[in-house]
Design brief:
Length: 541
């Protein structure tokens, strides 16, 4: 049965906008005919997130899709390495199965580094044999971000076999190389690694592009690199894609998804067709996605928007079927049923477990709002202290890392830039192994926050004045069994509470979750204490 859709057609490939009629049959566009009518609305290809970890939204794929489809996102390239670090292949297959009920098109890449490094302790391990098994399933469009830069530079056989398997099956390999430059960068790229989403300066991005990489401009909830990299849109739009990497549901609801990057770029005066090519076409071509780009004989995947400034979504079509707003808002707000998978073996801790003797000069993690890159800072005391807890007036707080897969000794250090004046907060979302991480002003509050997460076998918590607020995450300890609106309501209450307690970060939990990600510069906390990225080893005390 044929269907016709009329409006102002945005032909990105030919850089043209014209009034016309699109005819759809069997889910594909069979013709696009120009006419002389006047239309208010615009028809264009949908937006694509070129790199995202859905688990970091704390939502299942189905619930995530309900939010982003309303923002014009019709497809995502999802790297399920968060749940893979907890549950291995079982977690990946859970994501694949759940995504089959998604409201958008979901494509998956194979996690390349589980755990992220040999210095991490996660709930599972993916070896090259596992990667080969997953590739042969034909469910995947790429090999996920290769965080093992050391393994590439030193020709680690296991690491290189994963990359070579991807090449053998003709799927691209994504990169993860923050700050990598010069000869090391060239060797990394020569291994066949095609993208990077970790650039924080224009100079770094241009060097990588000139050396053969494509750059993903990231604008997520914790890492925001659009302002630093936006000139790439003008300089080399063919070599750029947009991504969110990690996006909180409240940010998607209130601020947008890929559409927020598109709107910023248009407001900044960049060429409409360059921006839309980056947002809608480049990911399709790079990952060979089965997504229509508003061309004849392709799937009828497109969005209809009110105008080309607000990009307010009126309708979304996938394979010729109206997906939004066919599913009414009330339906999108309903929670879907889901099984609970988990791997959480930690038992509660005592206040005495969190005591730490400090000397007169001490290392300290330096945090900056809106960034996941940290600095190597110091703080001083006049005399050594048998158990230093914090100094909120000087913004020196205790940070705790706790393995959730076994009962090991807590790792304790200090952090600056959080701003908390009282209480504590904790989370079982800590990239990439998802052990427990917490920051607080007193050991008592820290123990309350941490133990509430342990009791729930995963979640977010805020402890203040003998009261604990908790958002349970029963699915792998990183995802809720609720919809995005419910999670956002609970999240917003906790963030408001943290700000009332003095926290100066826009997204405290998101920022905290990256403090254990030792593959991001410069100083983080991990399984054996503080880890220095530039030297790539734990700091001896």
């Amino acid at each position: 049965m044929k269907k016709q859709i009329e409006g102002n057609i945005v032909d990105i490939c030919n850089r043209n906008i014209f009034p016309g009629v699109i005819t759809i049959e069997d889910g594909c566009i069979i013709s696009m005919v120009q006419n002389s009518k006047c239309y208010e609305e615009y028809i264009l290809p949908g937006f694509i997130d070129a790199h995202v970890h859905i688990e970091s939204s704390m939502l299942t794929p189905v619930e995530f899709s309900k939010l982003v489809i309303q923002k014009g996102t019709i497809a995502v390239v999802n790297d399920p390495h968060e749940i893979a670090n907890v549950l291995g292949k079982e977690g990946i297959y859970f994501m694949l199965e759940n995504s089959r009920s998604s409201f958008i098109k979901m494509f998956f890449t194979i996690p390349s580094c589980v755990p992220a490094t040999s210095h991490d302790f996660s709930g599972s391990v993916l070896l090259s044999d596992d990667v080969e098994e997953l590739i042969k399933s034909n469910y995947f469009v790429g090999l996920s971000e290769m965080m093992d830069v050391f393994g590439i530079l030193h020709d680690c056989p296991e690491t290189m076999r994963k990359v070579n398997l991807a090449h053998g099956y003709n799927i691209p390999v994504d990169g993860h190389a923050p700050g990598l430059r010069g000869k090391d960068l060239l060797k990394y790229i020569r291994a066949g690694i095609s993208t990077d989403h970790e650039c924080v300066t224009l100079e770094e991005a241009l060097e990588k592009i000139n050396s053969g990489m494509k750059i993903l401009i990231r604008e997520g909830s914790a890492a925001k690199n659009y302002e630093a990299l936006k000139m790439l849109i003008k300089i080399c739009p063919e070599q750029v894609m947009f991504c969110t990497d990690d996006s909180h549901p409240g940010d998607i609801i209130h601020l947008g998804h890929i559409d927020k990057i598109v709107k910023k770029a248009i407001q900044d005066g960049f060429d409409l067709f360059d921006v839309l090519k980056i947002a809608c076409i480049n990911p399709v071509q790079h990952y060979n996605l089965q997504v229509g780009t508003l061309c004849v004989n392709e799937p009828a995947d497109f969005i209809i928007v009110r105008d080309l400034k607000s990009f307010e979504v009126q309708t979304v079509y996938l394979s010729g079927k109206e997906m939004y707003p066919f599913y009414k808002k009330t339906e999108l707000e309903k929670s879907s049923s889901v099984i609970h998978l988990n791997h959480f073996l930690r038992t509660p801790i005592s206040v005495s477990d969190l005591q730490k003797k400090v000397s007169t000069k001490n290392l300290c993690i330096g945090v900056k709002n809106g960034e996941i890159v940290t600095t190597k800072d110091f703080f001083s005391l006049s005399l050594p202290v048998s158990n230093f807890q914090s100094n909120p007036e000087k913004d020196i707080l205790k940070i705790v890392y706790l393995n959730r897969y076994r009962n090991t000794t807590p790792q304790i250090a200090y952090i600056r830039g959080i701003g908390l004046k009282r209480g504590a907060f904790a989370t079982s979302i800590s990239h990439d192994s998802h052990n427990i991480i917490a920051v607080g002003c007193t050991d008592y509050d820290l123990a309350m926050a941490i133990n509430s997460v342990i009791t729930e076998k995963g979640g977010l918590s805020v402890a203040d004045e003998n009261i604990v607020f908790v958002l349970p995450l029963p699915i792998a300890g990183i995802m809720a069994d609720k919809n995005g609106f419910e999670v956002t309501e609970m999240w917003d209450c906790m963030i408001e509470k943290l700000h009332h307690m003095g926290c100066c970060l826009d997204s405290p939990f998101m920022t905290l979750s990256f403090m254990a990600l030792i593959v991001i510069p410069e100083l983080k906390i991990g399984e054996k204490g503080l880890f220095e990225y530039s030297k790539f080893h734990f700091v001896s005390e």
